[in-house]
């Protein structure tokens, strides 16, 4: 069973940066694709970014040019570097392992304007 643990959330001001981490462990045959989603209060969970096993990345339009997803295969960890944060980026951010459908517990990101 795959376990995902996010960290790195917090409270920042608009324009600042944060880096989220998602450490994966458990019965993983290979470190394949990983994704980040977020859920703001009163809204549905939405896709943020994905990185596949080949290193190809995909981003939601709302974060393109500001967020960068990356991975460290040796550590089974995926990162989300978030720059130029906006108040509308405030949400709980979740790590997702598409191959197993597993989710992390989420980490809160709050951006004050």
Describe this structure in words.
Strands 2, 4, 5, 6, 9, 10 and 11 form a seven-stranded mixed sheet that branches. A four-stranded antiparallel sheet has the order 1-3-8-7, with no helix packed on it. The mean pLDDT is 93. It has strands spanning 2-7, 10-13, 18-26, 34-39, 46-51, 57-59, 67-72, 77-82, 91-97, 102-103, 107-112. The relative contact order is 0.33. It has 113 residues and is mainly beta.
Treating each run of at least 4 consecutive H or I residues as one helix, how many helices? 0
Number of strands: 11
Rg (C-alpha, Å): 13 Å
Helix fraction?
under 10%
Strand content bin: over 45%
The CA-CA distance between the termini, in Å, is 40 Å
Runs in which pLDDT lies below 50 for 5 or more consecutive residues are: none
Shape: globular
Order of helices and strands: EEEEEEEEEEE
Q: Could you state the oligomeric state of the chains shown?
A: single chain
| Overall pLDDT score | 93
Q: Which structural class do you get from the secondary structure elements?
A: mainly beta
Give a short account of the largest sheet. Answer: 7 strands, mixed
Layout of SSEs?
Blueprint: E1 2-7, E2 10-13, E3 18-26, E4 34-39, E5 46-51, E6 57-59, E7 67-72, E8 77-82, E9 91-97, E10 102-103, E11 107-112
Parallel strand pairs: 2-11
Antiparallel strand pairs: 1-3, 3-8, 4-5, 4-9, 5-6, 7-8, 9-10, 9-11
């Amino acid at each position: 069973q795959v376990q995902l643990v996010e960290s790195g959330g917090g409270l920042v001001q608009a324009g600042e940066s944060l880096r989220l981490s998602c450490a994966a462990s458990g019965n993983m045959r290979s470190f394949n694709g990983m994704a980040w989603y977020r859920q703001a209060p009163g809204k549905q969970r939405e896709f943020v970014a994905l990185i596949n096993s080949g290193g190809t990345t995909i981003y939601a339009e709302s974060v393109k040019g500001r967020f960068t997803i990356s991975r460290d295969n040796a550590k089974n960890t995926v990162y989300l570097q978030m720059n130029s944060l906006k108040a509308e980026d405030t949400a709980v951010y979740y790590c997702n392992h598409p191959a197993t459908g597993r989710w992390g517990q989420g980490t809160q990101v709050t951006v004050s304007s």
